[in-house]
Specification:
Low-confidence stretches: 1-7
Strand order of the largest sheet: 4-3-5-7-6
Shape: globular
Oligomer: single chain
Order of helices and strands: HHHHHHHHHHEEHHHHHEHEHEEEH
Helix content: 55-70%
Radius of gyration: 25 Å
Largest sheet: 5 strands, mixed
Number of strands: 7
Length: 511
């Protein structure tokens, strides 16, 4: 018996190592790509990590809002910056480490109920799911946290021995999922309820509920008393969908875009051919899920985990459809996990019914994982900008260093950005050597606005920066349009802005 446990432990550790290695290796082309660029939201969370590293209070949520849990991600970013320096790659590595921790938790949880081999191949397919190719490294304040916390909750709830402390931890993890991104809760709910019914004692159920409710109440109490930190200047999409029937077709498109993983905020980014094909194959799996469930019920070929995971998929879609009119692909990121596991459960049911051999099913999963990995590696060319850098050419990080270098050479420490997200990019990539703000007088992090306006009032050299081709008429406002300098054909810089020019350009100043 001891030898068997030792063997299972070694095999399990081997599986964990392979999962982590594959997940990381498949994303190396992105990390090494000349197109690697943090978007504005990532730069905001990155700056939060910088502030924590410098001893600022630990924020509960993303700057400027009361949702999007940041208390998990920002300490990880601070630690990564302390070890590797402030930059895009250290930020991506920290988020990938959190995502891989969640992936391992899913493997541990589902391998207990499905078996090690089945759990491994399903987790391997999830490790290279295009839906998470780029999102697994995005510091979007809550999405990767929700992925990991859901996995931890499942891991703890499937433990062989139902101990109260594990269910307490599962309850807290469920609360973290809710606080990070509430849209993940509908997908977790059927799994949690099934495990509460089949694996928990009455005491464990009570402890689970107490842990979840207590954690949510604690954060709600702190939030109510206003000590979360920061001024609220950003609200999420309005709750409710007044156009249910009209949004059905966009919902299908949203699911497809989400499963390709090729998107940026509310916009789709054209995926590679292989990624697009995989996205449509998963849409076929999604379309076949309901008829398969009807067939199982009609023929009494019940398969509990198939029914539970289908409920998870269905509730994820319904919640997104009913609760949000916005059809951003990132809102359906919780779809990929239950859909992947559902497909694996159905495939591995074939050997149990002697409809196919186990070897054939493993071979099919291995081929699928290899194809998915190729698609994920194809994300090396993924970019949300309107330009693409050639392989071996100047990287985005180098261009931004050039931009901030131009500003520093001209004595500029503060700038006004013509784009609302560019302000965060400049501030993060310069490691706050250049502080930028946008046009609004109220934004996510008021100290930046105060610092830039104070520099203007003090007569320091001030710049206006923006994307090349998007000057919004600035050349008609300045005395010498030739003074607007170009940086690598991507950014423009105008040094010497005064209050009158900034007000004509649409900036709302605070002093």
């Amino acid at each position: 018996m001891g030898t068997q446990v030792l063997y299972r432990t070694r095999r399990g550790l081997g599986y964990l190592a392979v999962l982590a290695a594959v997940a990381a290796a498949a994303r190396l082309p992105q990390l090494l790509s000349a197109n690697l660029l943090l978007d504005g939201d990532e730069c905001i969370v990155g700056l939060m990590g910088v502030h924590v590293l410098h001893g600022h209070p630990l924020p509960f949520f993303m700057y400027g809002q009361r949702y999007g849990l940041a208390i998990v991600e920002t300490p990880l970013l601070a630690a990564s910056f302390a070890l590797l320096g402030v930059g895009a790659v250290p930020l991506k590595l920290a988020m990938l480490a959190l995502w891989i921790a969640g992936l391992i938790a899913y493997f541990r949880g589902f391998s207990r109920v499905l078996g090690d081999t089945r759990g491994f191949w399903i987790a391997l397919l999830l490790a290279v799911a295009p839906a998470w190719a780029a999102a697994s490294m995005k510091a979007w304040s809550g999405y990767v946290t929700a992925f990991a916390a859901t996995g931890v909750a499942i891991d703890l709830m499937t433990a062989d021995v139902p101990r109260a402390r594990r269910w307490l931890g599962a309850g807290i993890a469920t609360a973290v999922t809710f606080l990070a991104q509430p849209l993940w809760l509908p997908g977790l709910a059927p799994i949690a309820l099934y495990l509460l019914w089949t694996r928990a004692t009455p005491r464990c159920r009570a402890v689970y509920v107490a842990g979840a409710a207590g954690a949510i109440a604690l954060v709600a109490g702190v939030r109510a008393f206003g000590s979360i930190g920061g001024d609220v200047s950003w609200s999420g999409p309005a709750a409710g969908n007044p156009h249910l029937l009209a949004s059905l077709r966009p919902l299908v498109q949203q699911a497809y875009v989400s499963l390709t993983g090729s998107f940026y905020l509310g916009s789709a980014v054209a995926p590679g051919r292989l990624t697009a094909a995989i996205g449509w194959l998963w849409m076929l799996v999604l379309a076949a899920a309901a008829p398969a469930q009807i067939f199982r019920v009609a023929t009494r070929r019940y398969l509990p985990w198939s029914h539970v995971l289908f409920a998870s998929v269905l509730l994820t879609l319904i919640a997104n459809w009913l609760l949000l009119e916005a059809r951003d692909a990132r809102y359906l990121l919780p779809l990929a996990m239950p859909l992947t596991v559902l497909a694996g459960v159905e495939l591995f049911d074939l050997p149990d019914r002697r409809a196919a051999s186990m070897r054939a099913c493993v071979a099919a999963m291995a081929i699928a994982a290899a194809v998915h990995a190729a698609a994920v590696m194809g994300f090396a060319g993924h970019t949300f900008m309107w330009w693409t850098n050639t392989r071996g050419g100047r990287s985005e990080s180098a261009t931004l260093r050039q931009l901030t270098g131009v500003l520093r050479e001209r004595g500029v420490r503060h700038a006004y950005a013509m784009n609302p997200l560019l302000q965060w990019t400049i501030t993060f990539y310069s490691d706050e050597a250049v502080i930028a703000r946008w046009k609004a007088a109220r934004d996510r992090y008021p100290p930046y606005i105060e610092a830039v306006d104070a520099a203007l009032a003090a007569g320091e050299p001030i710049a206006i920066v923006g994307y090349t081709g998007y000057t919004y008429g600035l050349e008609r406002l300045v005395a010498d349009p030739k003074a607007i300098a170009d940086v690598d054909g991507k950014y423009f810089v105008y040094v010497g802005a005064d209050r009158a020019l900034l007000e004509r350009a649409g900036f709302h100043l605070t002093r």
